[in-house]
Every structure is written in structure tokens, then in C-alpha cells.
Design brief:
With 171 residues, this protein is α+β, with helices and mostly antiparallel strands. It contains 5 helices and 12 strands. β1 and β2 form a beta hairpin. 23% of the residues are buried. The structure holds fe (ii) ion (FE2). The site of fe (ii) ion has 6 residues, from β5.
Length: 171
């Protein structure tokens, strides 16, 4: 489960309820989904052409609820590892401060990563997300994202439009 660290302070939150309350103050949403669903007998029986489709099928109910709540239209699964071609180029799009016109919605299936939020009150906090964590960074929120040392993450992404968002960078 996630760990939230407020930069320049000793504040570290690991309790999901406290994390949810903290990020809600800045308009973000955080929740924990049952990641064990991936490993149940029912999950193993899911027939799908690809691992991505299997994951989307297993979490179909959660994704539908999210779409209804946030008006999102589509979902996919992204997987990054040290073997991903042009990984550094891909990461360079996310690891600079930016915002976009769409919410950024991520559910971590495997691996981990760090969303850093630069709040309007100039507080900067890191949310390190782990398997089972859903984070919604609302449109217009200044933030950036980076992988951890293992450079590995697998996430469900949920989008408002089929084309996905376009980042605006802070100069
Ligand atoms: Fe972003």
C-alpha cells in the first residue's frame, strides 16, 4: 500500500485512511482495491488473448464504477520495465512538472512508482504507489511521476478520451 511523504517535513503517512484524507484536501482521490483478485482461482480461469486484457477483465467491476463516477471512457494497461525500449525517453515525458486537461487515473497492478504533487499552497508531497493503490490526480494539478530504482510498474490507466491527455509543462 502507498506511502505519502511531505517534503521538508517529517510527515510520512502509510495508513490508507489518512492518505485518502490528506490527498482529498488537494482534490486527489486515493483508494485501495483488492489486488489479491489477481491470484484467485476465478482470476486464473479468465480467458483472455493478452495479459493486459486479463487484468482489465479481472478488475472490470472496479473500472466500470470508476468510469461512472469520473465520466471516463476507456481503460488500458501499461507495463514498464528496464527492458522497455526507450524507457528513459518515455519517462522524460512524465518526470518534469506538468499538468493536463484530463484527470490522470492509475491503478497499480505490479511494481511501484512515485507521483509528486506540487500543491497550490506550495506544499510538495510524494505518493509512492504500490500494487492495489488507485490514485486519481485531477486535471489542472501540477505534478510529476518517476519510477523507483527497480524501474518496474504495471498499471491500469483510465482515460476521459480515447487519445489520452496532452501534458503542459511548467516553464
Ligand atoms: Fe501527468
Amino acid at each position: 500500500m502507498a506511502e505519502l511523504r511531505v517534503r521538508g517535513t517529517d510527515t510520512v503517512l502509510t495508513d490508507p485512511t489518512l492518505i485518502k484524507d490528506f490527498v482529498r484536501g488537494y482534490g486527489l482521490d486515493y483508494e485501495v482495491w483488492n489486488i489479491e483478485k489477481l491470484h484467485t482461482e476465478a482470476a486464473k480461469a479468465v480467458q483472455a488473448e493478452t495479459e493486459q486484457q486479463r487484468i482489465l477483465t479481472i478488475f472490470a467491476d472496479e473500472i466500470e464504477a470508476l468510469k461512472e463516477r469520473g465520466g471516463y471512457l476507456s481503460a488500458d494497461v501499461i507495463s514498464l520495465t528496464p527492458a522497455t525500449p526507450n524507457l528513459d525517453t518515455l519517462l522524460a515525458k512524465f518526470d518534469k512538472e506538468h499538468e493536463h486537461d484530463e484527470d490522470e487515473v492509475r491503478f497499480v497492478v505490479d511494481g511501484r512508482g512515485i507521483f509528486t504533487i506540487h500543491a497550490p499552497d506550495d506544499r510538495v508531497f510524494d505518493v509512492e504507489v504500490h500494487p492495489g493503490d488507485l490514485l486519481v490526480v485531477p486535471k489542472g494539478t501540477w505534478h510529476w511521476f518517476d519510477l523507483c530504482e527497480d524501474k518496474t510498474i504495471k498499471c491500469i490507466r483510465v482515460f476521459e478520451s480515447a487519445g489520452g491527455w496532452v501534458a503542459h509543462y511548467r516553464s
